[in-house]
Amino acid sequence: MSFRTPTLLESLIPLFAIALFLGVGYGVLGIRAEILLLAATAVASALAWRMGYRYKDLEEGIIASMMKGMPAMLIVIVVGALIGSWIASGTIPMLIYYGLEIISPKYFLVTACLVSAVVSLVTGTSYGTVGTIGVAFVGIAEGLGIPLGQAAGAIVAGAYFGDKLSPFSDTTNLAPIAVQGNLYDHIRHTLWTTTPAMLLGLIVYFYLGLTRHSDGSSIVPAAIEMQETIVANFTFHPLLILPPVITLTLAIMRKPVIPGMLLASLVASILAMVYQGAVFKEAMNVMVIGYHGITGSEMVDLLLQRGGMLSMMNVKLIAFCAFAFGGVIQHTGMLAVILQALTRFANTTGRLVLTAVTASITTAVMTGSSFLSILIPGELFAPAFKKHKLAAKNLSRTTEDSGTVIVPLVPWSIAGVFMAATLNVPVISYAPWAILCYTGFIFAIIYGYTGIGIAPKIRDDETQPGS
């Protein structure tokens, strides 16, 4: 069966539909995003039917889209086990307790951002960073009276700073592959946009810390209550630091992420039996159903009653709905038509970078996928960057600046749903404070128009170091 190529108007209708449905339905009426994504998928499917596509054709596109997102979803599920076991073992409660001891409220946001960045840089996973040290920092923020939106924003920004620059990160490896570039050249070139975006965020976090306590208000009672509750319900021991050590060590050794997380979860479950008195069945089940202990403090219970692989099924559900929409618009060529229309505008370096940024953000918003926001614009714009004699690492950097780090700000994306569920802070609350995530692409556009930080193409084979 022959399929008709969609017109630009037909291609834009699903984009308008998803913006309308999610903007009004999700943002105003509070309707669950899953059903709204399926409604937008239905609109795209109806247009596809007019172009000659049948259900079987669309199903193939949806399945292909889901398969591209499976690596991220597998990590999300394992992080659920990690969170539940680390809480049950006392690892996260101990980190919260001592964090309240040593972290100054004035420098909390700066500290949370920098520590999250280092952990993510070493492990290569923003999900694992937010699910472990991020959960601990949210607990500390609650005890110190720090607004949770600001705390979560600083954590997410730090986690994605490290993720963008880590040679162990899947998206960092994918970006140069998509444009046929080199990993380490890509990482070094990314510093041009990521460093000023990170510094800008740190300046804001530092200022917030200085101004927050200028009235001399006391936040000590809440922290003391949390510490007393934690120490009354958990036994501390130096070995409780073993799960994070295992995770970081295996990451440094460049071992696969998922087996390392599972090993750290198993060790944490054993520690829960040894030091917290959990029975075998309880210690094993916590990796699936999460931690549900009663501490006697509503504040601490709200913080610690979380985790488990089952808690991540909502993340998977919304991801599947988003991939259904992304699969239809990609398989039918609608997304390609939109992006190709954008390329006709790109006749200078500045316009080319601006167009690539717009394409990556559009893909991120429409598909909710970090991988697709890198792959699709990367493959589409690579010839244009070569035509303008620009190094491939300019494009790979741009897809990360406007794709990878934008996705956690999209409420219906895997990353957005995961961050919100794990930190128990809505995307709309933390997004304004995840400053790195929406300023990196601004520097990319400025560089495109000024020529600062733009590398010329110096060889045909850019997969070689030094390109």
Description:
The chain has 467 residues and is mostly helical. The chain folds into two domains: 8-67 and 313-450, no CATH class; 70-312, no CATH class. 74% of the residues lie in helices and 0% in strands. The protein has helices spanning 8-26, 33-50, 55-89, 91-102, 108-123, 126-144, 148-165, 170-179, 183-212, 220-233, 242-252, 257-275, 280-289, 298-304, 313-331, 334-343, 349-367, 370-387, 392-404, 414-423, 427-430, 435-450. The longest helix is centred in the N-terminal third of the chain and has 35 residues, at 55-89. The protein is globular, with a radius of gyration of 23 Å. The protein starts with 7 loop residues before the first helix and ends in a 17-residue tail after the last helix.
Blueprint (SSEs and pairs):
Elements: H1 8-26, H2 33-50, H3 55-89, H4 91-102, H5 108-123, H6 126-144, H7 148-165, H8 170-179, H9 183-212, H10 220-233, H11 242-252, H12 257-275, H13 280-289, H14 298-304, H15 313-331, H16 334-343, H17 349-367, H18 370-387, H19 392-404, H20 414-423, H21 427-430, H22 435-450
Helix pairs in contact: 1-2, 1-16, 2-15, 3-6, 3-12, 3-13, 3-15, 4-6, 4-10, 5-6, 5-7, 5-9, 6-7, 6-10, 6-14, 6-20, 7-9, 8-18, 8-19, 9-19, 9-22, 11-12, 12-13, 15-20, 16-17, 16-18, 17-18, 17-19, 17-22, 18-19, 19-22
